[in-house]
Amino acid sequence: MTLLLFVAAVAAMAAAGYAQHRIPRHTAGRRRLWFLRAVLFVVGLALGHLSSSPLSDPFLALLAFLIGFGEVHVPAAIILFIKQERGAAKS
To answer: How far are the Cα atoms of 18, 29, 33 from residue 24, in angstroms, in the given order?
Structure first.
């Protein structure tokens, strides 16, 4: 169980890293860029907190937090991947 949670946390954080890395290449304007990053960060913190709060084991709570935080970024990562493959301009 712990190994599966660890793998899920690594995958979720990879999605978060990919999304944060690709956002500047597909977002026009610094204001939009920082707004999008702030929204993803705040919603990620909220979902991570909700995911980890019922757990008493600190390590499992950390893994649940990372999974929740990263899962918020998955839709953005998918969209940005598709935009990259299509060669879409900034929007």
So the answer is: 11, 9, 6
The domains of the chain are located at: 2-83
Tokens of 11: 């995958």
Yes or no: say if 86 and 27 are a contact pair by the CB < 8 Å rule: no
Residue type, 36: L
Q: What is the mean pLDDT of each run of 10 residues along the chain (91 residues)?
A: 95 97 91 95 97 95 97 96 87 77
- Contacts with 12 (C-beta within 8 Å, 6 or more apart), sequence order: 66, 67, 68, 69, 70, 71, 73, 74
Radius of gyration of the chain (CA): 14
- Residue 24 sits at the vertex; the CA angle it makes with 86 and 11, to the nearest 5 degrees, is 75
Give 86: exposed, middle or buried? Use CB within 10 Å, 0-12, 13-18, 19+: exposed
Q: Which residues contact 22 (CB under 8 A, 6 or more apart)?
A: 77, 80, 81, 84
